Amino acid sequence: MNSVEKDLLKNVIQDVNYDYAYNIRSNSKSIERKITDNVNIVAKEENKGIDIIVKDNAKFEYIYIPVLITESGLTDIVYNDFYIGKNSNVYIIAGCAIKNEGVQKSEHNGIHRFFVEEGANVHYMETHYAEGHKHNSKILNPVTEIYLKNGSSMDMKSIQIKGVDKTKRITKAILEDNTKLEIVEKIMTDNNAKADTIFDVKLNGNNSSCHVTSRSFATGNSKQKFKSIIYGNNKCYSHVECDAILKDKGKVVSIPEIVANNVDANLVHEATIGKIAGEQLIKLMTLGLTEKEAEAEIIKGFLK
Amino acid sequence: MLELINVNYEIDGKKILSNINLKIDNNKIMIITGPNGSGKSTLSKIIMGILKPTSGQILWNGDDITNLSINKKSNLGISYAFQQPVRFKGITVKDIIDISSHKENDINTISNILNEVGLNYSEYMNRELDDKLSGGELKRIEIASVIARKSKLIILDEPEAGIDLWSFNDLINLFVNKKKESGLLIISHQQKLFKIADEIVLLENGMIKSCENYISMKNMLCCNRCVKKENIYE
């Protein structure tokens, strides 16, 4: 990595522990890679992506999969498939950072598929960030597909910090028996940015559960759309919580859809959209903060 | 320390407070009591700057602070614990204490502050101030956030609300302890608190009916008020 890439990487992954497995992709090519005894990384043909294979029973393995884009005018598509072995426990830290100082658009489409075997636990975190010239377009379209086998679980944190002009984020999951999926998504949009999020979860298994928390902050003239479709096809539980804070001319649409196809399906959707509550500002002002400082603290906490 | 001179407050032509004159001294506990709707919370909000008086003056060590903003009053040394604490998604107990004390506190400091309100730091430090906390837990955290400010005047609006009577005694001890460093202005109906007050102010229909100590207040209520009123304060 050159110094520009190193600085850019810090925006999505603060500290890569190089003792563990990693694959760093920059401008559509893998530039650094390490495998370990428990984690193998195999390149797909023509730099289309990688297969990440975690052995059965591997415990507390970390895997770093960042993508960097510094070329203006580049459209990158990557297919990364994660095969998570039985009873393993892994932490996967991914992210995409774009730095575009040119006038053409930069676009990254990352398709991540997770095949999680019986009894495995996956902790997945992805961060999206962009910076550069304000008149170009920085686009990030992450797609995540999750397949949870009997007794497995996954938690996923997806964060879009700032600078992304357009994003379409699709997360699909199919859950078998005794599985658990937790998703936390936090998005901030400003200026004229647009963000679309779709969650499509099928709770096919007995005792499967899903918890989706979406927190978004839309300011400037930005627009966000959140859509979730949860299918309860067995005895299962699902809770979707969508909270959005608006400022300036920010707009947020939340579209809930819960489909109960089984009498023992228990599905909940909550959505709250509005500006920062006056009483929250007053409370922090009684602690000595100005109104602006109070607003910044509330948003910082909300998106933390 | 704090003086209110002829403070009036009206909303939509209705008088909520009339000619309030009060002096709150350092290292004293003043309790403001009175029936519902008598203007107690309004008075405390006016002192904090959350509401502006229609007329009258508020002096802080002789300086006029009537029209100062909430945060300026806070930075002078006035703090305020809400009757119904505000919930925040994402802001943790540690965050609110750090915000309150304007610095990043170490675990020992956080632990000491939470101990004072009867909470265990390891259980609560990283909890968010959201609806997963009970009313009583939130109330204790609200009081902790105020203690962390180390203010010269602490205003507490019904600190007993939501807190079980068994642990309320510990909070009373806390207030007595804080009197060494601060003045306390407490809005309350709780007789247990009357006993620690240096002064009890009875507010009725937005007017100060009397300023007494506990014994004389008790006698006055017993002698001059109807049984119904007596029950409120006993």
What does this protein look like?
The complex is a heterodimer of chains A (304) and B (234). Chain A is mainly beta. Chain A contains 3 helices and 19 strands. A 10-stranded mixed sheet of chain A has the order 2-1-5-7-9-11-13-15-17-19, with helices on one face. In chain A, strands 3-4-6-8-10-12-14-16-18 form a 9-stranded mixed sheet, with no helix packed on it. In chain A, helix 2 (278-285) packs across helix 3. Chain A is globular and about 55 Å long. Chain B has a single domain (2-233), classed as Rossmann fold, CATH 3.40.50.300. Chain B has helices spanning 40-48, 70-76, 93-101, 107-116, 121-124, 135-147, 165-178, 191-194, 214-224, 227-233; strands at 2-11, 14-24, 29-33, 55-60, 63-64, 78-81, 153-157, 183-187, 199-204, 207-212. Chain B has a 6-stranded mixed sheet, sandwiched between helices. In chain B, helix 3 (93-101) runs parallel beside helix 6 (135-147). At the A-B interface, helix 2 and helix 3 of A face helix 2 and helix 3 of B.
Features:
heterodimer, A: 304 residues, mainly beta, 3 helices, 19 strands, 9% helix, 59% strand, B: 234 residues, alpha/beta, Rossmann fold, 6-stranded mixed beta sheet, 4-stranded antiparallel beta sheet, 10 helices, globular
